[in-house]
Amino acid sequence: MLSTLNDIKVGLNIIHDSEPYTVLVAHFVRMQQRKPVMQTKLRNLITGKVLEITFKPGDRVEEADLSRTKANFLYADDTQGYFMDNENYEQFSLDKNLLGSKLNYLKEGTEVNILNFNDKPVNLDLPVKMNFKVISAPPGVKGNSAAGRVTKEVQIETGHSVQAPLFINEGDVIKINTDTGEYVERVNE
What we know:
Structural class: mainly beta
CATH class of the largest domain: Mainly Beta
Radius of gyration: 21 Å
Strand content: over 45%
Largest sheet: 5 strands, antiparallel
Distance between the termini: 49 Å
Shape: flat
Order of helices and strands: EEEEEEEEHEEEEEEE
Number of domains: 3
């Protein structure tokens, strides 16, 4: 149990309505002649939905007991992404809607951190930066940079398209920030 509103911080995992949430935004609001309240935005770790909740003084918040395990991504079909636990080699799946844009960066054999709630997998964390091979890149056209366009759309090995500098060619390996989906650098392998 958390005793005060001061304990609610960004990144904290809490239980709300018997489900695990992570705190995305937390700030105090003080109005004239009223007690301060904590306004938060919480993301449900099971469904991915975001809620705005206001906690008042005296409200009790329970910290979620989450564990992390390592797993490898196997494949995805129309509705699920399939993984294998690295310790006990058991296979499990997560709903594709829950995975969302993370699927754009999952390739066969990728090791990910799985969040478990009550010993059941509920979500995953990708490495922040990952390397991908460019499978399709149109040639950079002379004069494109004069118009302020210094990037082009390239396709990586997962089939996802990202913006990259004009000098990136098919076959290059590039590093992508999986949180923002942005190009970071070209990797020399």
